[in-house]
Amino acid sequence: MSAGGHGSGVERRGLMFVLSSPSGAGKTTLSRLLIDKTSGLKMSVSATTRPMRPGEIDGRDYFFVDKSRFETMAKEGELLEWATVFDNRYGTPRVPVEAALSAGQDVLFDIDWQGTQQLKERAREDLVSVFVLPPTHDELERRLRIRAQDSDDVVRKRMSKAADEISHWPEYDYVIVNDDLAIAQEKIKAILDAERLRLTRQVGLSDFVRRLT
Amino acid sequence: MSAGGHGSGVERRGLMFVLSSPSGAGKTTLSRLLIDKTSGLKMSVSATTRPMRPGEIDGRDYFFVDKSRFETMAKEGELLEWATVFDNRYGTPRVPVEAALSAGQDVLFDIDWQGTQQLKERAREDLVSVFVLPPTHDELERRLRIRAQDSDDVVRKRMSKAADEISHWPEYDYVIVNDDLAIAQEKIKAILDAERLRLTRQVGLSDFVRRLT
Fold first, then answer.
1. Cα dihedral: A107, A113, A116, A118 (round 10)
2. Does domain B16-199 sit in CATH 3.30.2290.10?
3. How far is A78 from chain B (nearest CA, A)?
């Protein structure tokens, strides 16, 4: 049986599947749907220095570490990418990702363009990146105006942040427009299914072909 | 509306989708299924010097041309690839393919590794190539032993030809194992759907993003 569970008997190396988008484009919903409907795919769990919140579980939601441990991890190459958000640090531990890939499992990353660029530098061959766009300007604004009492100024700031994230679409392998959640979901699934069939991921092909002829 | 008919409003450039396999791997069946189930995809029609057979239609099954016309087409760069089989010549006319791609239509090619290599030299950016493998040695032999009265020698020759074709799998972008026709069909469809979402094919993305932000 293949490590990737393809049923074809060809051993497979896993891939790192990145979804990025501005907030309001539906990325988090799409990530959850993809995880639920796909075998052999797991969400990457980040390390963070922010305090654990009620209901969170260490190792499931995050790996909770203190600042000095985080510094050590970053310094010793134990993190694939990291960032600082409001004094808290977030990063992707390398070891669980490497273990998953070697076992033919794929790993899903819900990260922004900066995290994606860092991953690309460290793991180009294993990376597949997808950028999710909202369907229209008005729909993006509607989704960013979450509460009726949001001031125009707050919404303008959110739009500006979204525009900044969107400007990085040319750095991705694939771009999808999320105008219909079910269709967007199918498109993302097709990209993952196709990338699993790339020559470079099916590391057992030489052996398979040898048995064939 | 997009030329590619994606419904997302993003204009798309078509792609050249190549399926290759040894005979007996199910490629012709898979090609027909894909054409039937996919909008915006059409089969490439070859030019040939062989005589028209009863039931064939010029321009649908082949473009039937005489030898001197074929020579001129090859010499003047009107063919994307060509080959000689039993004194008859076969080739892919460039103009209909180029017209389809520009209109955001994809074109399917049912050709061998030599044709694929020629296409690659002439149109690398637009080409997506898939190699279809049979599931096992025994199944390949069973499919090549078409008639009960086939001699072992005939089957051996067919196996040897199949092994030669199979040896070219490393030159393709994707490899799928056809152990179940429905699953193989889904995999090929996923590859086509995913490739349509590649950044490089969605030529209208810059315009789309400009309207977004």
1. -150
2. no
3. 31
Tokens of B15: 């792609």
Q: What is the token pair recorded at B75?
A: 């010499």
| Reported confidence tier of residue A23, pLDDT bands at 50, 70, 90 | confident
Rounded CA separation A9/A26 (Å): 36
Q: Which of A142, A113, A163 is nearest to B213 (CA)?
A: A163
Task: Quote the ipTM score.
Answer: 0.89
- Cα-flanking dihedrals φ and ψ of residue B199, to 5°? -45, -50
**Residue B209 forms contact with A (CB below 8 Å):** yes
What residues in A contact B186, CB-CB < 8 Å?
A: 193
The distance in angstroms from the start CA to the end CA of chain A is: 20
Residues of A whose CB is below 8 A from B189 = 190
For chain A, positions 110-169, list CB contacts with chain B under 8 A.
Answer: 133-137, 140, 159, 162-163, 166-167, 169
pLDDT band for A1, please (50, 70, 90 cuts).
Answer: very low
Residue A30: per-residue pLDDT: 94
Give the best residue of B18, B139, B172, B175 to mutate against chain A (max A CB count within 10 A). Answer: B175
The Cβ-side half-sphere exposure at A91, using a 13 Å CA radius, reads 23
pLDDT tens-digit readout, A68-111: 999 999 999 999 999 988 889 999 999 999 999 999 999 999 98
Angle value at C-alpha A83, between A82 and A86, nearest 5 degrees:
150
- Per residue in B109-159, pLDDT tens? 998 999 999 999 988 889 999 999 999 999 888 888 876 677 888 888 888
Tokens 């006319």 -> residue: B93
Domain at A16-44+104-197, CATH class: alpha beta
Q: How do the domains of chain B map onto residue ranges?
A: 16-199
Q: What backbone phi and psi angles, to 5 degrees, belong to B90?
A: -130, 140
Beta-carbon pairs below 8 A across chains A and B? 119
Q: How many angstroms away from the CA of A167 is the closest CA of chain B?
A: 8
**pLDDT tens per residue, range A145-177:** 876 677 888 888 888 989 999 999 999 999 999
CB nearest B211 (choices: A137, A169, A175): A137
